Amino acid sequence: MNSFGERLREIREKQGITSNELCSLLNVASGTVSRWEAGKREPGIETINSLATTLNTSVAYLMGETDDPRPILRLDGTMKFDGGSVIGKDTEYPSVYKKLPGGLVGIGPDIILVPRVSEQYSPHCGGSGHTTYLDDDAAAEGYEPIVSCLLGDIDAAKPPRAYKVDGSSMVDYGVPPDSWVVVNPAQWITAGAVCLVEIGGNPVIKKVYPKGGGYELHASNGQMIKADKEDLEYEYVRIIGKVVGVQGTVDHRP
């Protein structure tokens, strides 16, 4: 089993954060993280809690109690942290959490909880789905964590939401079935962006390419749908937002 320092270095590198950047986020002296990773020093439990929050993992993973690096999540969409607090739809947030516009919740310096939309509104990677209720607060069921730098700019009028994916046609584009995708309508849509799209009221996940005033909507299995200018004008096809994060299937852990 890897040591604390090895696990810390591995999860830090996966997050794309340098050791000096992590020092700044934790407000510790330069070189401190490198000494932790080398096993020359060990942080206190409060600092380990801060490390877990900042790196979107759990204290249990950093301490070698589990090999699963994900935060402790539950099937009902709530998020349980090492202190035992559970964040759900109607939770009163402890002081460590900060309410943000659009129903978002901030944790520590760099983690945002994005409300999950009820699974009955799951977008399909292929075929028909159900009507998407992006702005329906009543449909929110728990939260999905994401690093704020991935989320990008936020429009409170059209806030980010997380959706459960049904279907496998986008697997090769990094969207497996039963995953949760975080969708941000405020993100600029560039050619080749993976997006949540409504086609005739049915939500689907597609890779989007602008084409002649319309769009080509591609799946990784080779299927392609053309949406022309009239489809957009009459809102038969709507680009809901860009997928900025994908989380794998969450298993129940008490």
From TrEMBL:
<dbReference type="InterPro" id="IPR039418">
    <property type="entry name" value="LexA-like"/>
</dbReference>
<dbReference type="InterPro" id="IPR015927">
    <property type="entry name" value="Peptidase_S24_S26A/B/C"/>
</dbReference>
<dbReference type="InterPro" id="IPR010982">
    <property type="entry name" value="Lambda_DNA-bd_dom_sf"/>
</dbReference>
<keyword id="KW-0805">Transcription regulation</keyword>
<protein>
    <recommendedName>
        <fullName>HTH cro/C1-type domain-containing protein</fullName>
    </recommendedName>
</protein>
<dbReference type="Pfam" id="PF00717">
    <property type="entry name" value="Peptidase_S24"/>
</dbReference>
<dbReference type="Pfam" id="PF01381">
    <property type="entry name" value="HTH_3"/>
</dbReference>
<keyword id="KW-0804">Transcription</keyword>
<dbReference type="InterPro" id="IPR036286">
    <property type="entry name" value="LexA/Signal_pep-like_sf"/>
</dbReference>
<dbReference type="GO" id="GO:0003677">
    <property type="term" value="F:DNA binding"/>
</dbReference>
<keyword id="KW-0238">DNA-binding</keyword>
<feature type="domain" description="HTH cro/C1-type">
    <location>
        <begin position="8"/>
        <end position="62"/>
    </location>
</feature>
<dbReference type="InterPro" id="IPR001387">
    <property type="entry name" value="Cro/C1-type_HTH"/>
</dbReference>
